[in-house]
């Protein structure tokens, strides 16, 4: 469990210090002798269990959203939605560190392989030939990304996958009856009359994967909701606050087979 800050006054003091530290005061003008107004370089927009989230973090999250193939065709992330994702991500990473789950950290080889996979999967990269150095560099420049940022994004996604497998998979059991029910009630209705229908024994492994992912999603969502309820989350920018009574935005666990295909 993540503990709440014991001294909110100290926390606010730290926040104010961070906000002041993010302001650069331009010195006296050499030409006219007048001081220029301070220039805000960055600011704290939210605090999650004493961890600050900056306005620049939101900008970075929006830029990195292009790396998610599932977002193809969707509108750009709003700043509010990006902040919600960052809050959930911070809570998850704090809990992973709290439980000291070092085994969830992917190797450099795994991260490199995931980046190579992204270069083949992202629809825009297919047209831009991101598998070539020139195409990949053009893609990164267009979206104001760096190789290091893509690797960091990929590392996080792999870490979450490993964490979910380690923490939740052992609690899930897919019975033969569950598999057969999905086959008869969900899969078979997708076929038109006269189309060849694969036998249950051929598609059973894929059905089990689908059912496993569905249950993992449910467990993960419940767990993440509890993290939100137990954690101390404060949004400092009123324009980024969720409406009163809204449920926490969930992070969908990365799934290499997110689309259920026949």
Q: What does it look like?
A:
There is one protein chain. β3 and β4 form a beta hairpin. This protein has a single domain, classed as Orthogonal Bundle (Triger factor/SurA peptide-binding fold). The protein is mainly alpha-helical and 262 residues long. A three-stranded antiparallel beta sheet has the order 4-3-5, with helices on both faces. The chain has a two-stranded antiparallel sheet with strand order 1-2.
Task: Identify the strand order in the major beta sheet.
Answer: 4-3-5
CATH superfamily: Porin chaperone SurA, peptide-binding domain
CATH architecture: Orthogonal Bundle
Which CATH class? Mainly Alpha
Give helix % range. 40-55%
For the secondary structure, the number of strands is 5
Structural class: mainly alpha
The tally of domains stands at: 1
The residue ranges in which pLDDT falls below 50 over 5 or more consecutive positions are 1-31, 255-262
Radius of gyration: 23 Å
Average pLDDT rating: 79
Strand content: 5-15%
Count up the helices.
Answer: 9
| Biggest sheet overview | 3 strands, antiparallel
Instruction: Determine the CATH topology.
Output: Triger factor/SurA peptide-binding fold
- Which word captures the global form? globular
Order of helices and strands: HEEEEHHHHHHHHE
- First and last CA, distance: 40 Å
């Amino acid at each position: 469990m993540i503990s709440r800050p014991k001294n909110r006054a100290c926390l606010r003091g730290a926040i104010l210090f961070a906000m002041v530290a993010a302001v650069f005061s331009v010195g006296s003008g050499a030409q006219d002798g007048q001081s220029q107004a301070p220039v805000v370089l960055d600011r704290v927009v939210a605090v999650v269990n004493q961890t600050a989230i900056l306005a620049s973090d939101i900008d970075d999250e929006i830029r990195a959203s292009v790396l998610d193939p599932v977002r193809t065709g969707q509108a750009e992330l709003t700043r509010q939605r990006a902040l919600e994702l960052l809050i959930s991500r911070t809570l998850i990473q704090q809990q992973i560190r709290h439980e000291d789950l070092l085994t969830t950290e992917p190797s450099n080889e795994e991260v490199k392989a995931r980046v190579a996979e992204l270069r083949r999967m992202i629809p825009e990269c297919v047209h831009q030939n991101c598998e070539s150095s020139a195409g990949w560099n053009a893609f990164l420049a267009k979206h104001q990304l760096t190789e290091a940022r893509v690797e960091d994004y990929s590392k996080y996604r792999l870490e979450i996958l490993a964490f979910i497998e380690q923490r939740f998979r052992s609690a899930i059991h897919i019975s033969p009856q569950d598999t057969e029910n999905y086959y008869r009630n969900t899969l078979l209705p997708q076929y038109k009359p006269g189309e060849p229908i694969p036998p249950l024994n051929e598609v059973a492994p894929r059905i089990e994967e689908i059912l496993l992912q569905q249950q993992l999603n449910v467990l993960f969502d419940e767990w993440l909701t509890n993290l939100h309820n137990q954690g101390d989350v404060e949004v400092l920018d009123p324009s980024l606050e969720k409406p009163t009574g809204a449920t926490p935005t969930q992070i969908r666990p990365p799934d290499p087979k997110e689309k259920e295909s026949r």
